[in-house]
């Protein structure tokens, strides 16, 4: 028996033509390598017996929720973070909880990949759905990203017929091998190259005497600018050139370039993120508070000041006395600065996890169902379209949204 198509949350493409063949072994069809790994890993976690813990000892769900409530009630500055792997309704529930306990809420445990958010606030974004890009674009530029590796079915989804594909990156990536043109650009030249492209697109005369010091040459940039302007409809899919900075000037220039190109043709941009449903978390917090992440409710009203109230900053400055963290990967935990890690080990932590947990010092650990495996819920595609994820197996794990609402109602 074949169940109706389900959606894969293995990457932000959210392919919705995945089929689950219901036999002794669940066989998932139409997924790429990344999607197959996602389903295998999460089905394995879902098959394990459910285990909640309080103080390192096995506990019932009710007592784990009671302990979580006590921790939040006794805290004067709780931090709620790690929303990347939660569905939209669970993210909304965490925001309501953070507001109720007058805490700080952040989408992630760390600030990696946040560099383009400040450009978004400054310049906005010109974007479109995957379907519009597939149907209308004649040129696709991949800027410092490698979708063949990270979003394997994206090229198929965007369609290659009648489109030219250009890859700009520091090294010949897997995507570069499938492109019509590869332009090698060292990371440290990305910003300067974009400034020059902006100038060429604007037909401004500029002093190019400094260009001799660069690997990229004027002719390549000039012909690229001509190609961008002469495309009927172009799209740039981008990654960050600086993942850890608070502000990435190259992403800022890229946003400006897309805006400038729209004075001459139609051009859109899509960010190829690798942080699960984090884009949705930013949307949820922005709808609710007016700010996309790192929002503080200590004075009842939302306060935002760049990364001041980010989870990493609040932990590093020891400005929280309890933490509730959603399902995170070990990598997220490893990216925390040392000072933040030290404080995280000192304060009571409530960890919601779809696996066996990554925070060894967590006082309360609650195993929750994963959307797309044993829970339903919406995830946000890379073009900001929300798609429903189906439940494909039944387990005893509670849905994250129910756990968060129970903690909120009892707090
Ligand atoms: S491209 Fe992404 S969403 Fe599509 S099947 Fe692969 S991992 Fe899943």
Task: Provide tags for this entry.
binds iron/sulfur cluster, about 400 residues, 9-stranded mixed β-sheet, 5-stranded parallel β-sheet, globular, 2 domains, Rossmann fold
CATH topology call of the largest domain: Rossmann fold
Task: Determine the mean pLDDT.
Answer: 92
- Global outline: globular
Q: Give me the oligomer status.
A: single chain
The CATH architecture of the largest domain: 3-Layer(aba) Sandwich
Runs in which pLDDT lies below 50 for 5 or more consecutive residues are none
Largest sheet: 9 strands, mixed
Computed Rg: 23 Å
Counting DSSP H or I runs of 4 or more residues, the number of helices is 16
Q: How would you classify the helix and strand content by structural class?
A: alpha/beta
Number of strands: 18
Residue share in helices?
A: 25-40%
Strand fraction equals: 15-25%
Q: State the separation between the terminal residues, measured CA to CA.
A: 45 Å
Number of domains as seen in the coordinates: 2
Instruction: Name the ligand types.
Output: iron/sulfur cluster
CATH class of the largest domain: Alpha Beta
- Spatial strand sequence of the major β-sheet: 4-3-16-15-14-5-6-12-13
Structural topology:
Elements: E1 19-22, E2 26-29, H1 33-47, E3 52-54, E4 57-59, H2 61-74, E5 78-81, H3 88-100, E6 104-105, H4 117-123, H5 130-136, E7 139-143, H6 147-150, H7 154-158, E8 164-169, H8 174-178, E9 181-184, H9 190-201, H10 218-230, E10 233-238, H11 249-261, E11 266-271, H12 278-289, E12 295-296, E13 303-304, H13 311-316, E14 322-325, H14 330-334, H15 338-344, E15 349-353, E16 364-367, E17 377-380, E18 386-389, H16 400-410
Parallel strand pairs: 5-6, 5-14, 7-8, 7-10, 8-9, 10-11, 14-15, 15-16
Antiparallel strand pairs: 1-2, 3-4, 3-16, 6-12, 12-13, 17-18
Helix pairs in contact: 2-16, 3-12, 3-16, 4-11, 9-10, 9-11
Bound molecules: iron/sulfur cluster.
């Amino acid at each position: 028996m074949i169940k109706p198509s389900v959606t894969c949350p293995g990457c932000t493409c959210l392919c919705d033509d995945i089929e689950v063949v219901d036999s002794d072994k669940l066989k998932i069809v139409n997924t790429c390598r990344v999607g197959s790994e996602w389903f295998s890993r999460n089905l394995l976690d879902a098959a394990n017996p459910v285990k909640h813990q309080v103080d390192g000892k096995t506990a019932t769900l009710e007592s784990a929720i009671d302990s979580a409530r006590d921790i939040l009630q006794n805290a004067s500055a709780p931090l709620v973070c790690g929303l990347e792997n939660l569905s939209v309704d669970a993210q909304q529930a965490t925001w309501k909880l953070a507001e109720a306990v007058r805490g700080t809420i952040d989408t992630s445990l760390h600030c990696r990949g946040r560099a383009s958010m400040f450009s978004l606030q400054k310049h906005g974004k010109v974007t479109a759905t995957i379907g519009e890009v597939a149907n209308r674009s004649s040129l696709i530029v991949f800027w410092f990203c490698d979708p063949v590796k990270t979003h394997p079915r994206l090229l198929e989804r965007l369609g290659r017929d009648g489109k030219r594909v250009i890859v700009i990156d520091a090294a010949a990536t897997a995507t570069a091998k499938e492109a019509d043109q590869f332009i090698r650009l060292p990371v440290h030249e990305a910003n300067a190259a974009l400034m020059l492209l902006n100038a060429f697109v604007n037909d401004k005369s500029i002093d190019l005497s400094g260009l001799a010091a660069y690997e990229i040459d004027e002719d390549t940039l000039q012909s690229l600018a001509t190609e961008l302007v002469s495309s009927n409809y172009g799209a740039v899919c981008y990654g960050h050139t600086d993942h850890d900075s608070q502000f990435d000037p190259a992403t800022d220039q890229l946003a400006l370039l897309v805006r400038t190109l729209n004075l001459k043709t139609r051009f859109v941009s899509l960010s190829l993120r690798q942080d699960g449903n984090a884009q949705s978390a930013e949307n949820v917090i922005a709808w609710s508070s007016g700010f996309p992440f790192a929002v503080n409710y200590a004075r009842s009203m939302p306060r935002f000041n760049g990364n001041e109230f980010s989870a990493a900053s609040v932990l590093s400055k020891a400005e929280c006395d309890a933490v509730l963290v959603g399902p995170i990967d070990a990598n997220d935990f490893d990216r925390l600065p040392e000072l933040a890690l030290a404080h995280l080990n000192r304060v009571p932590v409530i960890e919601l996890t779809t696996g066996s947990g990554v925070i060894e010092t967590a006082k309360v650990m609650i195993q929750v169902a994963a959307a797309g495996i044993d829970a339903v819920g919406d995830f946000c595609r890379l073009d900001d379209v929300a798609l429903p994820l189906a439940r494909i197996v039944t387990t005893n794990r509670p849905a994250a949204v129910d756990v968060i609402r129970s903690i909120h109602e009892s707090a």
